[in-house]
From TrEMBL:
Belongs to the RPF2 family. It comes from Phaeodactylum tricornutum (strain CCAP 1055/1). The lineage of its organism: Eukaryota, Sar, Stramenopiles, Ochrophyta, Bacillariophyta. Keywords: Nucleus. This is Ribosome production factor 2 homolog. It comes from the Eukaryota.
Length: 354
């Protein structure tokens, strides 16, 4: 495994050694953070002892996550929730360039055990231990069920009120982990043919005989999405009609143990550079229907002083209106003149023009 940047920096400070060779420098440069990260790779490995069922679970997880999954067949003496076990996981994930991990094991105390986790900056961020109560393989559905295409993205659906409960920390963090584990590459646009399978996670609280909820189960079901022509749609619509075909793998899970990241470490993992954030466009807003509304600022326009085009009929009407207005003004002036003459004669006893 190549040394990290911090390790090289500390080594040069302590020993005064020279800069790393060109090959090591190129490797370090290729592992540096970029503004747009590619999809995360998943490392699938076996624990101290692993049953045939859990080995098949790992194989089918690799089939679902292909091509961003790497399966190690060798058994590892790793206890994930211990300090030494987490150091081993950090070493293996860094060596294989994987940010996600899944470790399967089986023993008398914890049968059919599956641990999902992820790393940040080459350190363990989250770990969640799940017990597999029921497993149905893709082979159990027969060879007639089509398989997902390599590189296609799944449609993830979370059903149940348990995922939304603010008091249920395991549910909220586990949902975030499952989305990160199955989503694949981050893309801006998708075609309908790019979504060929759907994974449904159902949260169910199983009650005991006296009505008290004893534990919560997570039902994972995988379906192949087959697109058919919708004959009942309108003529202008070309949207196909999806048909869900159960294809596996199907799992019934229960949460056994969890180790979630501290708040400061989680905030550091979510931090994004300012250049990667979308810039806010001024005077643009989006309404509840997703429509973009813009506001334009222009100077005041003098509409009254502008001369528009006038047709012959309008010019004739304007000329008649001007003549009528002039005649009305002259009639009013004549009336005022006669009234003033009458008032003058009444006051002085003779007419003004005498």
């Amino acid at each position: 495994m190549a040394p990290t940047n911090n390790q090289l920096y500390k080594t040069r400070q302590l020993t005064g050694a020279k800069a790393p060779k060109a090959k090591v420098a190129r490797y370090l440069k290729s592992t540096e953070a970029v503004l747009r990260e590619p999809g995360k790779n998943a490392l699938l490995l076996q624990g101290i002892s692993c049953s045939q069922t859990m080995t098949q679970v790992l194989k089918e997880l690799r089939a679902v996550q292909a091509p961003r999954a790497k399966l190690l067949t060798k058994k590892n003496q790793i206890v994930p929730f211990s300090t030494s076990g987490q150091q081993s996981l950090e070493f293996l994930t860094t060596k294989n360039d994987c940010a996600l991990l899944a470790l399967a094991s089986h023993n008398k105390k914890r049968p059919n055990n599956l641990i999902l986790g992820r790393t940040f900056d080459r350190t363990i961020l989250d770990l969640c231990e799940l017990g597999v109560l029921r497993f149905k393989s893709m082979h159990d559905y027969g060879g007639s069920v089509p398989k997902k295409r390599i590189g296609s993205k799944p449609l993830l659906l979370f059903v149940g009120d348990g995922w939304e409960q603010s008091s249920n920390l395991d549910a909220r963090n586990l949902r975030n982990l499952l989305v990160d584990f199955y989503r694949g590459d981050v893309v801006d646009k998708l075609t309908l043919s790019g979504i060929d399978h759907a994974i449904v996670f159902t949260w169910a609280d199983v009650a005991s005989s006296n009505g008290i909820a004893s534990r919560s189960l997570i039902h994972q079901r995988t379906y192949f999405v087959k697109l058919k022509k919708n004959v009942n749609s309108s003529i202008n619509s070309s949207a196909p009609l999806p048909q869900l075909i159960p294809s596996g793998p199907d799992l019934d899970l229960v949460v056994r143990r969890s180790q979630w990241a501290e708040s400061d470490l989680y905030q550091a993992a979510r931090k994004q550079p300012s250049s990667a954030k979308p810039k806010k466009t001024k005077n643009h807003s989006t309404n509840m229907f997703g429509e973009t509304i813009g506001r334009l600022h222009v100077t005041k326009q003098d509409v009254d002083g502008r001369q528009g085009r006038k047709v012959k009929a309008l010019r004739r009407a304007e000329k008649i209106a001007n003549v009528e207005e002039k005649a009305a003004i002259e009639a009013e002036l004549e009336q005022e003149k006669s009234e003033m003459s009458t008032e003058f004669k009444a006051t002085f006893g003779f007419a003004e023009n005498q």
